Amino acid sequence: LRSQMGANQDDALLALAAAEAAEELGEIERAQSLFDRAVELDPDSRSARAGRARMLLEAGRNDEGVAALSALESPDAALLEMAVELPNLDPSARAKLHWQFAAQLEARFENERAIEQLERAAELDTSLEGVTARDAALLYTRLGEPDQALAPAERAARLGAADAPLLEALGAARHRGGDA
Fold this sequence. Notes:
Layout: H1 2-7, H2 12-24, H3 28-41, H4 46-58, H5 62-70, H6 77-84, H7 91-107, H8 111-124, H9 129-142, H10 146-158, H11 164-177
Helix pairs in contact: 2-3, 2-4, 3-4, 4-5, 6-7, 7-8, 8-9, 9-10, 9-11, 10-11
């Protein structure tokens, strides 16, 4: 790959392949510069942007890594799991990572862990309490547990995070509880 990179400095896929190879070999600094180059050549490459974020986090450049991670539309769960445990991270940034991690866990049907992540996000940043309560209520509703959905749905509504799906979940939970 090194010889091909020399001749093809403007090939984003080759830069990405070389970055991934350097990462596999534990060459973090080289991988970082190659991921940077791959992103420069193809800013829309999800793989290059995720690799860049991962290398920044691996190198201990937490603020830059979290910023790169937050810029990803849908970061993978393993990367988010690594990021939520970073030391010296701003509580608000950590809360947002927990919230993103919850969404990824829910997509993988790891619902109990998703609820835990939503709770952690709300504990770390009270400005997220409404939306995390909303997400928890909707998750419980999708799981067929309207009794569990009631408290977070009411909290979300009280905090101004009500929308049509939440109001439906709240109505179903109250109906089941005999309050309808």
